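Let's do one together. I've listed all components of the complex below, 605 residues spread over two lines.
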Amino acid sequence: MNKIFETPLYPYYQSVDQTASAPAHHSVVVIGAGPVGLGMAIDLAQHGIDVVVLDDNDKVSFGSRAICFAKRTLEIADRLGFGDKLVDKGVQWNLGKVFFDERKVYEFNLLAEDGHARPAFINLQQYYFEQYLVERVQEINSETPKIDIRGKNRVSAIMDHGTYSALTVTTPDGEYTIHADWVIACDGAGSPTRSMMGLDFVGRVFEDNFLIADVTMEADFPTERWFWFDPPFNRGQSALLHKQPDGVWRIDLQLGWDVDKEAEKQPDRVIPRLNEMLGDDVKFELEWVSIYTFQCRRMEKFRHGNVIFAGDSAHQVSPFGARGANSGLQDVDNLSWKLAHVIQGLAPDTLLDSYDDERIHGADENIMNSTRSTDFITPKSDISRVFRNAVLDLSEHHAFARPLVNSGRLSMPCNYVGHSLTGEDALTGGPARSQPGMPCPDAPLDNRYLLSKLGGGFTLMTLNTDAPSLQQIEGIEIAQLELSATSDSNKTLGERFLGTAERAVYLIRPDQHIVARWSEYDAARVQMAVETALGKIQ
Amino acid sequence: MSTLILTPNIPNGDDFYEKLLNAHEGLSKEQSDALNARLILVLSNHIGDMDILEQALEAAKTAGQTS
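Okay, and this is what the predicted structure of the assembly comes out as:
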């Protein structure tokens, strides 16, 4: 079968830069055409910035790789214009089951809160995610060419010249050099850019190996997430079964530390393991097999002058909890509007330092959560195994122990409460979930959802009150959204944004995070909040 | 902040102590360790107050140190 990841989606072509007499100069070069690199290019293009994307490959990622995309990622994808494709193709699931030894100890239902356009999670192979990104790039370019993806263009050297960087690019037709004001390195956990710049990447390596197998099978397993601790078919270890589109199932088997990785990857070792797990009568075909070890680490700083790191190149977490691609897309969400505003002269260069501040905070939160999951799944000492098993035994009988079972915490969006770009909270009685710094919660409106009306630029949202027509603050267009919420109409909106207040005014960032909120419009305070969000007030 | 009770608080201490030992009667070392772990988790959940739990962890740690 011809898989999407075997077809060149952005084949090599010879660009004019390769035959230019002097190095061409670009505003932004993105290195890497994975989910983060392409997402970054699309977001910047939507802000009016031209982008060159260099990738050493010409295809989407081989194998399914990242498979769980969280609600926040879907909301970001909506803003980037390809959310529907993800949700139409993806598998939605709510039910998770946890097994210990030979018995099911409990099950949980993710049943997401009502009143959100997007589900809590979908499962989707990374290659589809990337395919839809490439299609979105083509759609943008068909209107105005903004994104130049250059396949088989490997960056082989990077030189910092202070105000710009010089990149040496190796292609099938030889080398060429380009200059870029800004370089965004989205070249993955093994980031060649990071190595070429001699930058640190420290953290904790977990001494464990996991076999990851994607199989296609005709089986009547329900659309659920099944997690086993110490099952008969993988004694002393863990296992995970998860459904993807097209009848593909993700199977994760913990192998332990002292294994021969190459041997374990071979079908004659993998197939008997899977037979034991699935039962001899289940027919399946291997689509992709890989072995990985856990690593949790990050760069000390993500911004190095005019070179900025995003996604796995900047931070790496264990896969349990789906925090890799999901956090990478939050990096995109955070960086794109800031960089666009700096390039367009609307914000000081120091605004980009807040990317470091906010996303390092996000990375630390993700590393903490995935480290905790890993410590539960793979107890590091006898006593930690005793407590782990005690939690599992208790979870079968008592509800209190179930929240302690940690087979991977679902990725929740990061908030920036208390960070430098976050303004004042002057709404007495306002709900905590929509306090300044939080990602704006979604809510149903009459015929659409709130988030579809926000993002891209700044928005001043008024509830049960109004504000004069603003046009511009600090040279920036401020969109205005006037809404009303009562006990009869837009009740959910009221619950999520008014709390016990009667009216409210919210300022919302281009990435849909809340800057500040008030009980009434006050020109001077809105002005100050805009300046704060642009990094003009320290 | 709530304060951990470190003065006698169980009305009949001897009764309780006997019940604690009886619960472990006939268990292997491994089974006893598992029982203790479950007991700690059950009691911790009942307390449910992080201030108290932190003080309890500290009191238990300190008392075990040889001076």
